[in-house]
Amino acid sequence: MSAVKTPGADPLDAWVVRGAEPGVAPDATEGLRALLNTDDRFHSVDRLRGSGPAALVEARDALRGYLGGDAAALGELAARYPLVLAAAAPSGDPAPGDPAGGGLALVPAPGSDPEAALVAGVLAALHRAVAAGDWARLKACANPDCQWVYHDGSRNRSGRWCSMDECGDVMKARAYRRRARSGPASA
């Protein structure tokens, strides 16, 4: 799978589909959410493995581990794909990779091959998402058959399922059947 590159476009867009429901994230984090969902566990389809860059598959799997609380693989990945600090040009043009226009941004190290630059760009996007507080709102669906990554937009961050209409109903029905099979609770 490949796409025609347009100047200024995110190179990740060649491999992900942004805006796939449910649980669309804010723009800055949507690319990461879309990357995580290229491994569609509910439908047993991995849109990257075999067709995407191996380093991007590794980055996606490390991000999924990090989402679940395991930072080891992400740390190893970050050590191999360095980022450097880029400053805004004296002309006042924003730094490359600085969507907020604050003057500084983490960008792939100069001289990185395209695949390394792609992974380093994913790591830079992760840094921006964590700094903005958006990463903490990304969750994997609590349905073990699904694991779709969604943006929890609830006020108290208590969302458990990617969609109440699909996974929420299934999981609540499973819990009800489990309780019904175990019989009435002893008083």
- N to C succession of SSEs: HEEHHEEHEEH
Please identify the structural class as seen in this structure.
alpha+beta
Count of individual beta strands: 6
Radius of gyration: 19 Å
Count of all domains: 1
The share of residues in extended strands comes to 5-15%
Report mean pLDDT, rounded to a whole number: 82
Helical content class: 25-40%
Based on Cα principal axes, name the global outline: elongated
- What separation lies between the terminal Cα atoms? 60 Å
Name the strands of the widest sheet in spatial order.
Answer: 1-2
Low-pLDDT sequence parts? 1-7
Largest sheet entry? 2 strands, antiparallel
SS element count, helices: 5
Quick take:
This protein has 187 residues and is α+β, with helices and mostly antiparallel strands.
Question: What would you note in describing this structure?
Answer:
- The relative contact order is 0.15.
- Strand 5 (138-140) and strand 6 form a beta hairpin.
- Helix 1 crosses helix 4 (114-132) and helix 2 packs antiparallel against helix 3 (72-80).
- The protein has one domain.
- 38% of the residues lie in helices and 11% in strands.
- It has a two-stranded antiparallel ribbon.
- With 187 residues, the chain is α+β, with helices and mostly antiparallel strands.
